[in-house]
Amino acid sequence: MNATVLITGGTGLVGTRLTQLLQEKGYTVTHLSRSVSGNEKVKTYQWNIEQQQLDSEALTGVDYIIHLAGAGIADKRWTDQRKELILKSRTESTRLLQKSIAKLGEHSIKAFISASAVGYYGIDTGDAWMTEESLSGDGFAAEVTRQWEVAVDEISELNLRVVKIRIGIVLSEKGGALPKIMQPIKLGAGAPLGRGGQYMSWIHIDDLCRLFIFALEQSTMKGVYNGVAPHPATNQELTKKTADVLNKPLFLPNVPAFALKLLLGEMSQVVTGGNRVDNKKTEEAGFEFKYAELQPALVDLLK
């Protein structure tokens, strides 16, 4: 497989693992980044999203683009400045890619696979199953995801096959939600957050990366797919199973939602809300999950 895949956000949690898996399959991987890294295994091209500039050589000979770039939604408190960065890092980066591809005229790009997020469905959708056809919800995360997907849809006007993967909570021992859940558990202070019954639609990082590769290779895949494992867990289940795998007790009461709001501000929605997201469309496309159940996923990551 000597096709070339250009990844934006390639040095992030998902991008790093995805790069490894693509290279193992024989793909040539290049990155588009704000700064050129010292990674000898990956050729890195520069772009500047604020100035809408992109190294024109970055798109030469590229067969596929995987677009992961975007400021982390749960990394820092949501000040007005941070909110603007979260939105623009997604929409403006997508528009820069769209403009740059349009400018090329002739090109070799066959498909554009973009990250999206289950935050599209809203702050807290309770026990209702969310499918790709469900309406977009309310709240900041939903607004960001909506605008992001609109920008991605503009790329399909360039006669490219476009796939959007609405990503759930990515489970990895190297970053994201899991280390944050593990830290208090290891200290004997683990507890479910808020009411604990909110659904967390999760996916093992390797399954997510495999899904991006699957979407790239399956020419029949188009449009939006939920990137979540088949069995969403409640916050309480996820906390309890993590504690079980770590052989740690859980005896503290739930952390109340108001305390989380004091601590995290508006961003507390990310942990006190949740969505029960359906993945039938993804499985019907032919994708097979290696980690369909939470327990084996956690054992793989934490043992």
Topology overview:
Elements lengths: L3 E5 L4 H12 L3 E6 L9 E6 L4 E2 L9 E4 L12 H25 L6 E7 L6 E7 L9 H14 L7 E7 L1 E3 L5 H10 L12 E2 L1 E3 H13 L5 E5 L5 E2 H11 L11 H8 L4 H4 L1 E4 L2 H5 L9 H9 L1
Parallel strand pairs: 1-2, 1-5, 2-3, 5-6, 6-8, 7-14, 8-12, 9-11
Antiparallel strand pairs: 3-4, 10-13
Helix pairs in contact: 1-5, 2-3, 6-10
Number of strands: 14
Strand order of the largest sheet: 4-3-2-1-5-6-8-12
Structural class, judged by helices and strands? Answer: alpha/beta
Structural domain tally: 1
Name the CATH architecture: 3-Layer(aba) Sandwich
Radius of gyration: 19 Å
Roughly how many Å apart are the termini? 33 Å
Helix percent reads 25-40%
Which CATH first-tier class would you pick? Alpha Beta
Q: Which word captures the global form?
A: globular
What would the average pLDDT be, to the nearest integer?
94
Task: Give the biggest beta sheet.
Answer: 8 strands, mixed
CATH homologous group name: NAD(P)-binding Rossmann-like Domain
Question: Would you tell me which CATH topology applies?
Answer: Rossmann fold
Alpha plus pi helix count = 10
Beta-strand content estimate? 15-25%
Low-confidence stretches: none
H-E order: EHEEEEHEEHEEHEEHEEHHHEHH
Describe this entry's structure for a reader.
Helix content is 37%, strand content 21%. The radius of gyration is 19 Å and the shape is globular. The mean pLDDT is 94. The chain has ten helices and 14 strands. The chain has one domain: NAD(P)-binding Rossmann-like Domain (Rossmann fold). The two termini are 33 Å apart. It is of the alpha/beta class and 303 residues long. An eight-stranded mixed beta sheet has the order 4-3-2-1-5-6-8-12, with helices on both faces. It has a two-stranded parallel ribbon with strand order 7-14.
